[in-house]
């Protein structure tokens, strides 16, 4: 909707005035009525309304002074609204005007409207002077008129009242005031209070149309006594809804423009022809830290860095002359920070005055990235030249573009021998050409490569090298590549010596395990001889228990000797070997123990396997000690999330001696507790219909002479 058309549609003469009194905009009625009251009979010779009013005051017009005071109070925010009714000399008789002032644009100016209310005032006068003249005015007035009692009974209503509110005269007379007005509405309560106090009220009320719409009306309400001395009210009103809507639309458009400006992601500002800031968005103040008062009227060049000011000034003048322009410049914030913006400017004309609309996009991060790239390039060049590794930059044609001293020293060439030449022709042999072609193809397709290769020095001697190839990208295209060569000759020789030493140590360790197993076997054999010499059953049983413990340890060393790994043992295989040659057979009087083993493949560190094996052996010693066992023994080994579970189950077990919940103080129980403490395990016993003993512990790489742990940090990482 065109705001000027809305402004022109106002029922009175209107003007928009700023704080200094300058008339910013007028409607068509004020422009065509230069002799009317708002000029006080003086020909307007200035665009400043305060100056014009001063001339009227000097000519003796007191109402002009009141209007100046009212305008100033509204502009300064002392009053939200100002109204007054005043007469003005107009041949041949006086006329009356209603003057209303309201703020607009968040205190940026005020709207003043002069409305001719002569008819309203004359209606009262006419009523008193002549019944006939009042009757004619009553019937033909464009304003609605109610003749009513203070209690709200409507005595008469003119046709305009019916036209404005939609009710017939009879409906008004039957329904009274309650038909058209809500007495609890704030505006209506205020009007009633003022009229009660002063007998006259002029201002706004809210009436209700027959269709339910609420209408804002401008009303003149006079309380007087008629010729019968009865209190009577005459209300003269007109519909102000369209006027209010126009003013609301004007304010709404202003709010919309402001919101649109503030929603822009970058800077938005308005400059006049003197390069002074006129308007700006919130991002402008938020980004730079300046206050509204610090920016208003400020020359825009003052916040531009000194080295960019001349160029920015030139671009701004180009915008005012050519219509558009753009540039990049550094801006100083209030805190002294420097930020870079890409500015765009466009000229526009407003009432014959040129302005520049500018926008700015913050590119500080982009500028900093470019600076960082330049810095990184310099650092990379220094790294390239000073690197102890041989480095060469090659083109897609495989020619050397750049080479460092380490490369020349490694291959025995001078830089002048290499630059511009195909590197492969200098360092390849016939049997490595195809391999080099594959490497070159991969790197120029964008792959980063790392590969051990054989290349040759200038004198033909071979070099064991690790080559790293890195593509160089530019706009999604590989434009070159870096090749980095690491001499592995000394490393290869060292690896060979280490491998030989490790092999010797493995053989030695295997021999150690073999000898330990043999020595343990000799000890076990000696115990067998001792057992054969003993006649007492108790001593024989004790010696058998000792023999079983030695047997358990010997089986671990036998298993290690048979495997390549000298520190890890397959505990399921160990259990299988242990149960196949169970030493407890000699303990049981039956001479036969049926053992069923179900074991998952589980590997344990030697330092955890030994105490675990001894704990299992001690459980066997306790279970079969002094028992004529004839049942079937089941052993299950399983693992879930590094937790090992070993369960021994049978229908005929004597578990009292090792049950943690009993008061037993047997030697077997103490040994089991000691072994379990070494592997941080626990033991539980079930004495139900099917008896079982369960051993649980976490798989760990315990430290010791046979541990794979090398230092404390590695130990912590395992925990």
Structural account:
With 719 residues, the protein is an alpha+beta fold. Mean pLDDT is 81; it is low at 585-591 and 705-719. It has five domains: 3-116, Beta-Lactamase; 119-246, Beta-Lactamase; 264-367, 2-Layer Sandwich (Beta-Lactamase); 387-487, PAS domain (Beta-Lactamase, 2-Layer Sandwich), CATH 3.30.450; 496-698, 2-Layer Sandwich (Heat Shock Protein 90). Strands 2-1-5-4-3 form a five-stranded antiparallel sheet, with helices on both faces. A five-stranded antiparallel sheet has the order 7-6-10-9-8, with helices on both faces. A five-stranded antiparallel sheet has the order 12-11-15-14-13. The longest helix is centred in the C-terminal third of the chain and has 45 residues, at 489-533.
Distance between the termini: 76 Å
CATH topology of the largest domain: Heat Shock Protein 90
Name of the CATH class of the largest domain: Alpha Beta
Oligomeric state of the chains present here: single chain
Q: Rounded to an integer, what's the Rg over CA atoms?
A: 54 Å
Discrete helix count: 25
Let me know the average pLDDT: 81
Low-confidence stretches: 585-591, 705-719
Strand order of the largest sheet: 2-1-5-4-3
Number of strands: 27
Summarize this structure briefly.
By secondary structure, the chain is an alpha+beta fold. The chain folds into 5 domains: 114 residues, Beta-Lactamase, CATH 3.30.450.20; 128 residues, PAS domain (Beta-Lactamase); 104 residues, PAS domain (Beta-Lactamase), CATH 3.30.450.20; 101 residues, Beta-Lactamase (2-Layer Sandwich), CATH 3.30.450; 203 residues, Histidine kinase-like ATPase, C-terminal domain (Heat Shock Protein 90, 2-Layer Sandwich), CATH 3.30.565.
């Amino acid at each position: 909707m065109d705001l000027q058309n809305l402004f022109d549609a106002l029922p009175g003469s209107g003007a928009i005035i700023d704080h200094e009194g300058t008339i910013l905009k007028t409607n068509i009625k004020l422009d065509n009525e230069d002799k009317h009251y708002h000029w006080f009979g003086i020909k307007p010779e200035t665009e400043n309304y305060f100056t014009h009013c001063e001339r009227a005051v000097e000519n003796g017009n007191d109402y002009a002074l009141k209007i100046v005071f009212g305008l100033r109070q509204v502009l300064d925010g002392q009053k939200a609204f100002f109204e007054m009714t005043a007469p003005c000399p107009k041949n041949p008789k006086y006329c009356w005007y209603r003057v209303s002032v309201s703020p607009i644009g968040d205190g940026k100016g005020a709207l003043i409207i002069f409305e001719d209310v002569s008819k309203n005032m004359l209606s009262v006068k006419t009523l008193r002077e002549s019944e006939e003249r009042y009757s004619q005015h009553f019937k033909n007035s464009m304003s609605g008129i109610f003749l009513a009692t203070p209690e709200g009974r409507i005595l008469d209503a003119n046709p305009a009242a019916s036209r404005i509110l939609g009710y017939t005269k009879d409906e008004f007379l039957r329904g009274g005031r309650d038909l058209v007005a809500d007495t609890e509405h704030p505006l209506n309560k205020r009007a009633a209070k003022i009229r009660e106090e002063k007998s006259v009220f002029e201002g706004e009320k809210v009436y209700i149309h027959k269709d339910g719409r609420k209408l804002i009306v401008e009303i003149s309400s006079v309380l007087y006594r008629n010729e019968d001395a009865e209190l009577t009210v005459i209300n003269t009103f007109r519909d102000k809804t369209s006027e209010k809507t126009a003013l609301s639309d004007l304010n709404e458009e202003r709010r919309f423009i402001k919101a649109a400006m503030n929603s822009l992601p970058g800077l938005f500002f308005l400059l006049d022809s003197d390069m002074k800031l006129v308007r700006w968005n919130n991002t402008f103040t938020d980004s730079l830290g300046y206050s509204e008062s610090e920016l208003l009227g400020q020359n825009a060049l003052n916040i531009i860095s000194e080295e960019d000011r001349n160029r920015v000034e030139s671009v701004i003048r180009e915008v005012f002359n050519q219509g558009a322009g753009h540039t990049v410049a550094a801006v100083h914030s209030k805190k002294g920070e420097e930020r870079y913006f890409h500015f765009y400017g466009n000229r526009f004309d407003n009432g014959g005055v040129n302005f520049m609309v500018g926008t700015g996009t913050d590119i500080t991060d982009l500028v900093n990235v470019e600076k960082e790239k330049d810095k990184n390039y310099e650092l990379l060049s220094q790294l390239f030249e000073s690197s102890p590794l041989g480095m060469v930059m090659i083109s897609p044609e495989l020619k050397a573009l750049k080479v460092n001293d380490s490369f020349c020293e490694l291959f025995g060439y001078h830089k002048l021998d290499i630059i511009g030449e195909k590197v492969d022709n200098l360092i390849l042999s016939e049997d490595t050409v195809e391999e080099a072609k594959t490497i070159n193809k991969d790197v120029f397709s964008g792959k980063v490569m790392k590969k051990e290769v054989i290349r040759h020095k200038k004198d033909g001697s071979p070099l064991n090298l690790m080559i790293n190839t890195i593509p160089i990208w530019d706009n999604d295209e590989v434009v070159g590549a870096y090749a980095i060569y690491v001499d592995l000759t000394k490393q290869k020789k060292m690896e060979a010596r280490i491998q030989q030493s490790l092999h010797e140590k493995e053989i030695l360790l295997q021999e150690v395990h073999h000898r330990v197993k043999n020595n343990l076997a000799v000890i076990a054999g000696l115990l067998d001889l001792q057992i054969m010499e003993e006649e007492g059953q108790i001593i024989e049983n004790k010696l058998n228990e000792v023999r079983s413990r030695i047997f358990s340890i010997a089986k671990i060393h036998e298993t290690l000797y048979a495997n390549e790994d000298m520190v890890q043992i397959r505990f399921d295989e160990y259990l299988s070997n242990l149960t196949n040659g169970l030493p407890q057979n000699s303990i049981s009087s039956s001479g036969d123990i049926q053992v069923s083993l179900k074991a998952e493949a589980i590997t344990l560190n030697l330092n955890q396997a030994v105490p675990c094996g001894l704990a299992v052996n001690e459980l066997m010693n306790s279970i079969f000690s002094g028992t004529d066992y004839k049942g079937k023994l089941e052993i299950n080994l399983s693992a879930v999330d590094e937790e090992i579970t070993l369960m021994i189950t049978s229908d005929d077990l004597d578990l009292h001696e090792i049950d943690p919940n009993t008061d037993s103080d047997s030697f077997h129980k103490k040994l089991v507790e000691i072994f379990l403490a070494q592997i941080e395990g626990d033991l539980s016993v079930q004495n139900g219909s099917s008896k079982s003993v369960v051993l649980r512990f976490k798989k760990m790489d315990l430290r010791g002479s046979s541990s794979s742990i090398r230092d404390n940090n590695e130990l912590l990482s395992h925990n």
